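Whiteboard transcription, Tuesday session. T.W. wrote the C-alpha cells on the left side:
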C-alpha cells in the first residue's frame, strides 16, 4: 500500500482551544491551518524541524488568525484566506477580537481563495471549497479523503451563525455541498473539538439527510 504523501498533525492552542493543523510533506514542508497561539505554533514548527510554506485561515475569526502575525514575523510566507473574509483579518469587530478587548489586526492575506482555487503541495492537489455560513468567506480544504472544515461542523453540532456575516440558511447549504457525496473513509478535521472518522459526525449529518 502506497504511503500517504502528506500527513496531518494537530495542535490544540489559544483561548478557545483552536485545532491548528499542520499538513506536512515528506520533505518536512508544512502548511499551517488556523494558527491561534503564534508562540505555540512556532515552537511546534521548530521542535519538529518543519519548513513553513503557507498559512491558511479557514475563516477570519480571531481564534483562527491570531497567530498570523507572530508566524509571519519569523517566516517569509504568504497568508491565504477566502476572498470574502479578506476584510475580517484587518477589522477587529469583524474578526471578533474587539469584543474581548484585543483589537487584533492580522497582516494582509496575499492569496485569496475561492471555489476555483487549488493548492499544489507535496505532490498532492488540495481543493478549496467555499463553505459560507459561519462567515461569508469560510472555506474548507479537501484532499486524499481528508476534509478540513473550519467552524462549519463539529461532532456535536454546526458552526454559529449569530455573529456578523453569519447566515443560518447558507451554512446548511454549505454542509450539503461539502458532504453531497460522502466518502465513508473520509476523516473530518474541524476547527475545534474532536476530529477523525466521518462516522463521528453521523448524528449531525443525519439531521440534514446526509447518510454516512
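and on the right, the sequence the group agreed on:
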Amino acid at each position: 500500500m502506497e504511503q500517504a504523501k502528506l500527513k496531518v498533525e494537530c495542535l490544540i492552542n489559544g483561548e478557545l482551544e483552536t485545532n491548528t493543523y499542520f499538513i506536512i510533506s515528506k520533505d518536512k514542508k508544512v502548511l499551517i491551518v488556523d494558527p491561534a497561539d503564534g508562540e505555540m505554533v512556532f515552537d511546534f514548527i521548530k521542535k519538529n524541524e518543519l519548513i513553513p510554506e503557507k498559512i491558511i485561515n479557514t475563516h477570519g475569526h480571531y481564534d483562527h488568525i491570531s497567530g498570523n502575525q507572530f508566524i509571519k514575523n519569523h517566516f517569509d510566507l504568504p497568508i491565504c484566506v477566502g476572498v470574502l473574509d479578506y476584510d475580517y483579518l484587518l477589522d477587529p469587530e469583524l474578526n471578533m477580537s474587539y469584543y474581548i478587548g484585543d483589537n487584533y489586526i492580522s497582516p494582509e492575506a496575499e492569496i485569496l481563495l475561492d471555489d476555483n482555487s487549488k493548492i499544489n503541495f507535496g505532490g498532492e492537489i488540495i481543493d478549496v471549497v467555499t463553505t459560507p455560513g459561519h462567515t461569508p468567506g469560510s472555506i474548507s480544504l479537501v484532499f486524499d479523503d481528508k476534509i478540513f472544515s473550519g467552524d462549519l461542523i463539529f461532532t456535536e453540532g454546526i458552526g454559529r451563525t449569530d455573529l456578523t456575516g453569519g447566515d443560518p440558511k447558507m451554512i446548511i447549504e454549505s454542509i450539503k455541498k461539502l458532504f453531497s457525496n460522502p466518502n465513508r473513509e473520509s476523516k473530518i478535521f474541524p476547527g475545534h473539538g474532536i476530529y477523525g472518522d466521518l462516522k463521528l459526525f453521523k448524528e449531525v449529518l443525519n439531521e440534514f439527510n446526509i447518510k454516512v
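Someone added at the bottom: The mean pLDDT is 96.
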